[in-house]
Write the C-alpha cells for this entry.
Amino acid sequence: MIASSFFKSVLATNKKIVNTVCWQALLHSHKKILFSTTAFRSKNYEISPKNILTLSERGLLEDMHPEASPQLSKILSKKKQCFYCGFDPTADSLHVGNLMSIMVLLHCQQSGHDVIALVGTATARTGDPSGRFTDRQILEDSELDRNAKKIAENIRYIFNNYESDCYPHRDTKNLSPLKIVFNHEWYKEINVIDFVSTVFRDFRIANLMGMRSIRDRVNSEESMLMSEFVYQVFQSFDWMHLHEKHKCNFQVGGIDQLCNVQAGVKLIRRNREDSEEVYGLFTPLVTTPKGEKLGKSAGNSVWLNPEKTSPFEFYQYFFRQPDTAVVSFLKYFTFISLKEISAIMADHQQTPQFRKAQRILARNVTKIVHGTKGLESAERCTSALFGGKIEDLERLNEDEVYSTFAGTKIIDGVLESDTTVLDALTMTKALRRGENADQMISAGGVRLNGQLANVSHQILLSDVHVLVNNITLVTVGRKRHYLLKWSLPRIKHSEDDLRNPSKVDGRYV
C-alpha cells in the first residue's frame, strides 16, 4: 500500500506529462515488482491452505476414515484446518517409526494448516494395546513425567530444525506455530464417576472387541488388563476435547490405530451432531527389509533424540537402506518432489554401486530431523570413518569420536616417552592369537592414523602419531579398527596449521 501511494503521488504531480498508457505501464510494472519479489513482503505473509490429501501420491496416506466427502478437497484448500497426532511417553525418545506421522504433520503445517502434537501423559498410564500380545510395562509416574518432557523436546527439536534449515519459504512466510499439549491437563479436572457415567455410555463391549489384538488377548488364558481394554475410550475423548477446544477435525496415526480412530469419529458424531465432519488419516507402518515393524517394543529402534542415536548413526541407517526401500523412503521422509525422485532413481540405476539415492535420502532426512549442524556432524563422522584422511579424523569432537567409533574398541591410554607401536598394539589387543607384530608390520598390515607403521619398536611421538584431538587410530588389516584416546595433552607442532587450514584460535570453524 505504501508503494502504491508513492506511485500515485508521483503521477498526480506530473499528470500533465503522464498519459493513460504511461500510467497503466507504470502500475503494471509496480504490480510485477510487488508480487514477483520479496522486497515488499512481510515475514508474516500467510500460507494459503492446500489440499493435503495429495500426500497419498507419496504413499504417506495409506487409508482414511470415514471415506472422503466430495467437498473435502475444497474444504482443505479454502479454510485452514487443524490436525493432531498423539505420542505416548513410554520411552524418553521417539523413533523412526514415529517419523512417518511427524512428516504428515510437517506437510500439513507447510500447507498452511494448524498442527498439534499430543503427549499422552494420561493415556500412557492406561497402556495402548494396539499390536501387542502382552501387558504393557507399568512405569513410575516420575519416569513417565521425565519421558513426556523428553518427547516434547524431541518433537519441538524436529519442528524447529525443519523451520530454520529446511522450510523453503522461511524468509517470507511464517509457519503456523506447533502446539504441544499434555492430556493429563484435562483429565485431572474430570470427576471419574461423571466420566464413567457419561463418556463410557457411548461405548459398547462388542465395539471395543473389534480390534483383533484386544479380541485375541481377551480370549486368551491370561486375558488383558481393564486399563488397556478401555484405552480406546480415552483416545476418543482426547480427540473430542481437541475438537471442541481447537476445532481439530483431523487425527493422524499409523494404520494400527484404525479401531481407536474409528471410535473417536463415532464419539464426536454422537455428541457434536452440528459439528463439521471429522476424519482419521492413516500412515503405513515403517518396517525393516525383512518386514519387521520398527519400534521400541521390537528392539530395533533408531531414535530421533541425538543423545540416543547420534546424527552419524541416524545418517548411516538411511544410507544403508537397500535399493528396494530407498524410493519409498525418499517419498516418506523428504520433501523432494515426485518428479525429482524419479530423476534421482533413474540416475541411481546407472551406477547403483555409488549409492547416490541413498546419500540423497540420508542427507535430506538427517537435515530435517537434526538440522544443518547435525548433518554436518554426520558427514564429518562419515568422512572420518570411510574417507581415510587424517584431516577428517582430526575434525571430530569428543562426542563425534565416540559415536563414529561406537562399534570400535576405544581405549584410554597415557603416552609415555618410550611408548612404541608394539605397546599400542598390546594396549588395544589388536593382534589375534598366532599373529606376530613384526610380521604384520613388515607385510604392511598395521597403520596408525592411516599411515603404515615401519617397525614394532618405533616410538610414538605426540607431534607425529597423535592427532590434534588426542586420538590415534590403530588399524590392523583392512577392517579391524581400534582407537587410542590419550589422556595427556598432545604437544602442538608446527604442521598443525598446514594440516588444518580451517582451524582458528584453537577451534574448528
